[in-house]
Amino acid sequence: MADDTRRKMEEKTTNSSTAKNEQLDQHSENGEGQYLTTSTGVRINHTNDSLKAGSRGPTIMEDFHFREKMTHFDHERIPERVVHARGSAAHGYFQSYGPIPELTKAKLFNDPEKKTPVFVRISTVVGFRGSADTVRDVRGFATKFYTEEGNWDLVGNNMPVFFIQDGIKFPDLVHAIKPEPHNEMPQASAAHDNFWDFVSLMPESMHTIMWVMSDRAFPRSYAMMEGFGVHTFRFVNAEGKSKFVKFHWKPVAGIHSLVWDEAQKIAGKDPDFNRRDLWEAIEMGNYPEFELGVQVVDPEDEFAFDFDLLDPTKIIPEEVVPIKMIGKMTLNRNPDNFFAETEQVAFHPGHVVPGIDFTNDPLLQGRLFSYVDTQLIRLGGPNFNEIPINRPVVEVHNNQRDGFMRQTINKGKTNYFPNSRGGGCPMMAPETAGGYLHHMEKVEGHKIRERSDSFKDYFGQAKLFYNSQTEIEKKHIMEAFHFELGKVKDKEIRQRMVYMIANVDKDLAVKVANGIGINPPTDEAKIKEVAQDHIPREKVKSSVDTSPAVSMENRNNKKGSIKGRKVAIMIDEGFDYETVMQVKKKLMDGNATAEIVSKFHGMITASNGETLETDKNHITTASVLYDAIFIPGGAKSVARMKNHGDVIQFINEAYKHCKPLAFSGEAVELLENTALWNLVKEPQNGVNVSKGVVMASNNDNMGDFSERFMECIAQHRFWEREDMDHDSIPA
């Protein structure tokens, strides 16, 4: 009898539990009846802003929701980084241009004779470690300075703004842009429903979206890529006076990018393209160089702009606050071991030295917690700073002991402070002895989850960026939206994004709509609805409507330099040896690289009996891996290449991608076998240049020929070709 009773009770419990689980499963499937909760089941009424002391104040440590959300996110990958997993790195040094004690007391900026060692890691954000280099993505640009006052980490990106305004939204952003959780696709790409669903509901992201849709999303080389600190930091001088500061890295080689079609093809031909380029440049002595510049704002001008200095989705236009160059970084040594250095390096925005301090930027405040928390699981515990690549060059003295992977063997009887048994050591350092002193700032306000209204102009700078682009750059942004949103299956998300884009530029929104099968944005109420609580800022004296500095084409790209460019010299048996050597020397003099490409590997004999060894054969390379192509004369060589489909493919594809091409002597005849013949001017006597195609039908003017070719390489692209009908040009 007791057994029957127990059995009936168990069945009742099981049925009740099953019904409850079915109900929960049903809610999970349709998304109804769910409230956001903590992991302990506490319902959350606001998850878009961290808990602050006032709407513009610092994040408060008691924000259990933020800490739980960020801690869980930081520990989601073992051992690969959750973001920035795909990275490349190099050693080098930084040297100040001169003392700036009026701005900062940081010693690395005030001794122009000193070379401060650095380690730089550049990475994509979204892809896993095995993903390709050339995907459309933001690039991380993190620099560890091993200074005499301790390590300083400048942890930024190659774009000056970020998608979100508050660190509490970072897990949501990354979850949305990573491969979709049900099928782990797509890899290293934002072109899927989850990401654009998130963006279409987060208008604050639109400024960064415009940058990501531009060609800056796939740099030609890490040496040709800008870097930014993103946040507003502080400089503090010896008198304790503070100024707001934005950090900028400016590449000496200029700013250049790939085009989208070649970026996709390179991902298949050489997924290590940027990593290989950085490694080989350093090995050959073509050291990448970056100038460090700062934009400085006086405290009394904190509210003098039509945006909030603490908003990480905004820039300070260079036309409003010019950049002051304060030093140069040179990368001159490759890592000895990828894992020990590139993988184990641990960056943290909170690693600062005296003279550098923080602001209440809510994204920066979140990063100050998140980065250390991430290293605890990724690198095995609290002793990650003892890994050789992370160790400072100065001695470390503290009372921290034990823990996973402890390297230091501490001596002595005391591990606490204050103490008398150890002579009071290690003792606290006064400011006069280099002790770090936080800038004193008055902070007050209600404890509240709220965003300052000064952060709510979501589209002003997105418009500024778009209006500052040249027509060809605007065309590329439109095409990027066609690709990205064209991959989105949910028509409602595509429609919502078109209305979101209309808040930036209606003409662009119409063009995007036409390319993705969506109705143009005609409903003004809907345009305002997707903008949510957008508050346009009033124009002030320092406002600008355009900023040429954000356009790569408008900037001074140092067109006189060909440093770091790679040129394919295509030859076959019987080539013109003298012309090849002349052009190759000219390239080497400009610190560019020339590779000999032929149908097969081996030694190739020239028309004069000299030989050259090939660097690549047709099957192991492609035009997308080079910045320019040169084909010399030589009747036998050209006759053989006329029958090589790969050669014709090289020429047509390079032309389509607007790259410089050069043909000398009999090689001009090759154009007759390509779709280019009717698109370029037929060469006359001497040297002819048409749309970046350099031709010389004889060898009488080879000096001029080489010079004109170098000028075309320095220009990088000839965008006027994109205005032509390329349907007849095979790719």
UniProtKB/TrEMBL annotation:
It catalyses: 2 H2O2 = O2 + 2 H2O. Keywords: Heme, Hydrogen peroxide, Iron, Metal-binding, Oxidoreductase, Peroxidase. The keyword Cell membrane does not apply. GO terms for molecular function: catalase activity. SMART domains: Catalase. It is an enzyme of class 1 (oxidoreductase). Residues 1-56, 538-557 are annotated as: Disordered. Residues 1-13 have a biased composition (Basic and acidic residues). Its EC number is 1.11.1.6. Belongs to the catalase family. HPII subfamily. PANTHER family: CATALASE, CATALASE-B. This is Catalase. It comes from Aequorivita aurantiaca.
